[in-house]
Amino acid sequence: MEMEQEKMTMNKELSSDAAAYCCSACHGDETWSYNHPIRGRAKSRSLSASPALGSTKEFRRTRSLHGPCPVTTFGPKACVLQNPQTIMHIQDPASQRLTWNKSPKSVLVIKKMRDASLLQPFKELCTHLMEENNMIVYVEKKVLEDPAIASDESFGAVKKKFCTFREDYDDISNQIDFIICLGGDGTLLYASSLFQGSVPPVMAFHLGSLGFLTPFSFENFQSQVTQVIEGNAAVVLRSRLKVRVVKELRGKKTAVHNGLGENGSRAAGLDMDVGKQAMQYQVLNEVVIDRGPSSYLSNVDVYLDGHLITTVQGDGVIVSTPTGSTAYAAAAGASMIHPNVPAIMITPICPHSLSFRPIVVPAGVELKIMLSPEARNTAWVSFDGRKRQEIRHGDRRLLSRPSISITTSCYPLPSICVRDPVSDWFESLAQCLHWNVRKKQAHFEEEEEEEEEGEG
Q: What is the DSSP string of 51-94?
């Protein structure tokens, strides 16, 4: 009797647990029960989409890009300990659409500098935004100092309506509803650096040399801008890295303008008691630690959640986001990761070891990189190719060494898609990086096939 009661109690608990762990992303494709596990999907369903109810033209996804929610009961008695503080709810990236709580009224237009071919598109876009959409347009002050714009009398009426700002001095983070970039990938990286906290949605037009992150064509910009203003667009959340650099102060005072410290960091802090300086950056592509101008190998220690995992000896190391995996990391031999994958990539640069391969770690870990005590030279660090600075050996009298702490930021960059996150990414791989471009293998001629069949 006791055995039967125990089985009945156990079955009740498992049935309630199984209901709690039902995968909403599967839409009923995958269910679990103690007596009979059923896995898989109906043969008539596609991997990516199935017909919507009452329609044969519209489609909806049946699988989350993050995969199905795992069943966390294992066998008759084991399960994962539930801790409410560790539960993270992630929306299906395929369903991420742009919406506005209120109609957008202000837009920041960022133009690639020193490119005369962008002057006419810049003028057309700004005129359209002001006259057709009645938008408040922000531009950098140095953009209007361009002689071609300053001397254009026909553009004078529009130019007077601009709101201007200066990088590292004016904080416009709470005044911009969305951003439009005219240029290449570097223009988008620059836009990311202007917002060290929450980033407005970014619409990037491909008018530069490389357009991996800039999917929009400028030919029909009027209709595309209208769709974004109306909230009719998909977005991909590109994760960023929060980087904190702690260095020693060597008798140098740091000037601070409008909350901005050295090199334009917004979250800078000085600890004068211990003689240290802390700077913080938001990075979209990668953090690069290299040997700089020295002829010696770089020698840096890499810690993951406080544990030493390796010492990098070589030209340096790249710590990148999934967005940055198609940039410098790809050139150094790393794999390319879709921006919806929550991860951090560690890629060595010309390591002095044949077995040192790039690795991918979970997005929730904390990396800390320090100059090794045995290093013969200093190291240099840059953030998305900017703010380059030297990391020197620490004072032995201090308990801790200068360090670079890297975690995934809670402020991603919402990049507006032309179609959807998956289609845009593979289109960029094909068009910009020429991924898997090769001549196709020739097929056998019909006569050769018949001869082979006859011989058989």
A: EPTT-SS-EE-SS-TT-PPPP-EETTTEEPPP-GGG------GG
Residue 372 has pLDDT above 70, yes or no: yes
Q: Is 177 a catalytic residue?
A: no
Single out the residue of 380, 368, 373, 369 nearest to residue 394, CA to CA.
373
Is the pLDDT assigned to residue 369 strictly greater than 80? Answer: yes
Could you tell me which residues are beta bridge partners of residue 31?
Answer: 38
- Residue 73 has phi, psi (to 5 degrees) of -110, 130
pLDDT the model gives residue 272: 43
* 168 residue type, one letter: D
What is the structure's pLDDT at 276? 78
Q: Are strands 286-290 and 298-304 parallel, antiparallel or unpaired?
A: unpaired
CA neighbor of 232 nearest in space, from 198, 206, 203, 189: 203
- The amino acid occupying position 287 is V
Query: For 217, how many CA atoms within 13 A lie in the half-sphere containing its CB?
Result: 5
CB-facing half-sphere around the CA of 35: CA atoms within 13 A: 5
Which stretches of 199-342 are assigned E, i.e. beta strand?
Answer: 202-206, 235-238, 241-248, 269-271, 276-283, 286-290, 298-304, 307-320
Asked if 240 and 412 touch (Cβ cutoff 8 Å), the reply is yes
Q: Give the contacts of 194 (CB within 8 A, at least 6 positions apart).
A: 108, 167, 172, 173
pTM value? 0.78
Beta strands 386-391 and 379-383, pairing class: antiparallel
Which residue in the list 185, 290, 384, 424 is annotated as catalytic?
185
Say if CB 111 and CB 139 are below 8 A apart.
yes
Look at residues 235, 128, 230 and name the one whose alpha carbon lies nearest to residue 182: 128
Helix axes 221-229, 119-131, angle to 10 degrees: 40
Tokens of 95: 């369903």
Q: Give the helix, strand, coil percentages of the chain, each rounded to 5.
A: 25, 30, 50
255-300 pLDDT, tens digit per residue, is 444 444 444 444 444 444 457 789 999 999 999 999 999 999 999 9
Q: What values do phi and psi take at 386, rounded to 5?
A: -125, 175
Residue identified by tokens 């980033």 is: 199
Q: Quick one: which H or E segment has residue 218?
A: none
**Residue-wise pLDDT tens digits, 298-316:** 999 999 999 999 999 999 9
* Alpha helices (H) along 208-264: 221-229
Closest to 323 in 3D by CA, of 456, 203, 415: 415
**How many residues in the chain?**
456
